[in-house]
Structures are given as structure tokens and as C-alpha cells.
Design goal:
Layout (H helix, E strand, L loop, with lengths): L6 E7 L2 E6 L4 E5 H6 L4 H4 L22 E7 L3 E6 L8 E2 H7 L5
Antiparallel strand pairs: 1-2, 2-3, 4-5, 5-6
The structure holds zinc ion.
């Protein structure tokens, strides 16, 4: 049986996204760290035919690190909307926990 990694509470505290997880731990991730860890293709690149990932040069603006809101996707991921309109990054709960320094 696998532990279900689900947030029981998500809120913004200062410039951090604070998540309380159903199994106990809490994680705090700054907006900047969160945005820089955005796993979408335009931030992280996609592997080419040889499996080589060319990391694109990402330009951030003053509003890039403003978290406007988020959506929960299918009970497994969180999709933030950023001040500059970027909203294609899907952060799985597993990934969010790792970003917050909590092992599974
Ligand atoms: Zn992105």
C-alpha cells in the first residue's frame, strides 16, 4: 500500500507557499524557488530525439515570482498561475514535497 501524498491545507504565508500534508509534515517553498523549479517544457526544455535536454534560457520579469493563485489538478498536482501569466507548470505533490525538503 502506498501512502497517499495529499495536501490537507495550502496557503500563502508571506512570500512562501505553505503546504500541510495529510500525513503530517509541512513544507514551505518561496515563490522564487517554486517558479525556478517550474517543470514545464518552456522552463525546463524537452529532450530531443537523442534524449538530450537543452535547457532554454528563461527570462523572468518583476512579476514572474508573484503567485496569483493555483489549481489542483486531478488530486495529484498543483498548477500555479504567476503574475506574468505563466501557468503551464504542473507540480506533482511528490515534486512539491521534494522541493520542500520532505522525503516521501
Ligand atoms: Zn514553466
Amino acid at each position: 500500500m502506498t501512502t497517499r501524498l495529499a495536501p490537507s491545507n495550502i496557503q500563502i504565508i508571506g512570500n512562501e507557499l505553505a503546504i500541510a500534508w495529510e500525513d503530517g509534515p509541512e513544507t514551505f517553498t518561496t515563490f522564487e524557488a517554486l517558479r525556478k523549479a517550474c517543470p514545464c517544457a518552456s522552463c525546463c526544455g524537452e529532450p530531443d530525439a537523442m534524449g538530450v535536454v537543452m535547457r532554454p534560457e528563461v527570462r523572468y520579469t518583476a512579476t514572474s515570482f508573484e503567485l496569483r493563485g493555483w489549481q489542483l489538478i486531478g488530486g495529484y498536482a498543483l498548477q500555479p498561475t504567476w503574475g506574468d501569466g505563466h501557468a503551464t507548470g504542473l507540480f506533482t505533490f511528490r515534486y512539491l514535497r521534494r522541493l520542500g525538503g520532505v522525503a516521501e
